Amino acid sequence: HTWEAELPEGAWVLIELWREGGGEFSPQFLLPFGGERDWFLTFSENRLTRSGSPGAEGDWVGLSVRAEDDESALRNLKSEIPAGGIAVYAGFMDAADFSALRGANIVSLVVGKLPDFSVAKEGKVRGLRVLNDVAEYTGLDGCDALEYFEAPYSGEFPITTLSKLESLTTVVGKGDVNLSALSNAEAPFPKLRHLSLGDVEFEEVGSLPDFLGKLPNLQSLSLPDFVEMDVTGIARCPQLTAVELGNDCLDNGAQGIAALGSLSIALLNPHYTATEISGLSEKGAFAKVRVLGVSQPVSADQVPQLRELRLTGDQASFPPSGLSSFPKLPALEIEFATEADLAALAQAGPSLAALKSLTLTAPKVTDLTPLAALPAMQSLVVSDQLVTFEEKLTRIDLGGCQALKGVELVRLQNLETVELGAATPHAIAIRACTQLATVKIAGTNSLEEVVIDKAGKLGSADALTGGASIKVKRVTK
């Protein structure tokens, strides 16, 4: 598969693979982006290779450490690592395993657990992602080569220690963060460009303006939900191009957002009023925005570069019928869509000639048949309708969606039946739909990929056609 994105050279890309038997220990790799046009990736046995064109012999860029790899096997692997280094995934390793890799040329490391930071420190690891809680960070202060750091902490996140690492450009944090600890620092994070604090618990939220004032070169920022804070201080980061604000982030008069002239991704919260959004539009604040999350109305001429629109909060303020002014919009996501929202979307459907991708997150609906009014919809993702919802989506009928090529159903706990009718999808993914027992497809000749994960009642890929066999390139269960 190929992907296309507008990434700055030097960014880090997370590659997550799906493995038969589920994704709990599926390989993940952090790869540095060097401005390449295409990546063609192949994963075989335990090695990831990458090439620039289909069919070409790829370079070895990633190694997945298997549960059966003992100390001897690891030492042999270390001796084979190319001079340029590789990305390593290790979901099972303990302290003895890490000692066998000490001194290896590791560009990046994704690990399930990390006993200490010696491998990262001595190996000059540039990217580090830890999947499970870290309680101890002794030695982290010596990881001078780190550019990317991501780790969940059960206690205080080591933001003060990280602030002193001179190469660090990206931090993704989870844990307790005390912002006042850095309020008196002269020049923390000398190279930090990307900061994600979407999963942290803030202490001293009043220190946020002073903290942001120390990061004038910050380019992307994510702040958490359910934490009330004044975020007008983002105005102190004039180079911000991407902002994700939690639902309790307060920006009185939109002063913070209004000061950012280069925004390309603006995921705003529902607190912005229609007056504030209108004022931002009139000032041209959305002129460069490609991805916009908003709860108040905007028009296509106010967001001329828009590629993806996310409607958040209560759609009563921005009913989907208003989308008729977006004939060139390729992608749409609606959060908490109601039956009335889908009816309004169907009303706008004939005007949405370019809408190829639709995502419904936590929909409060019992029927998806109105989606047949979207003439160009090729990709549909429906997720997160829990068993506690009053509206029970027990049956999905997509037979009227003639252009449909890909369907992904995730955590739909009430879903029992899916009918695709005459639709000819190329890919179907069903994840954590525990009550789903029947999927009806008229023909399977178009199918290339089927993913079934945590959908025990469905049983097998053959159940997609009532017991008839299907031919696909890959089936994951």
Molecular shape: globular
Low-confidence stretches: none
Distance between the termini: 20 Å
The Rg value, from CA coordinates, equals 24 Å
Number of strands: 28
Description:
By secondary structure, the chain is α/β, with parallel strands linked by helices. Helix content is 12%, strand content 29%. The protein has a 21-stranded mixed beta sheet, with no helix packed on it. The chain has a three-stranded parallel beta sheet with strand order 22-24-26, with no helix packed on it. A two-stranded antiparallel ribbon has the order 1-2. Helix 1 links the parallel strand 5 and strand 6. The two termini are 20 Å apart.
Which structural traits does this protein have?
single chain; 477 residues; alpha/beta; 21-stranded mixed sheet; 8 helices; globular
Quickly describe the structure:
By secondary structure, the protein is of the alpha/beta class. Helices cover 12% and strands 29% of the residues. The two termini are 20 Å apart.
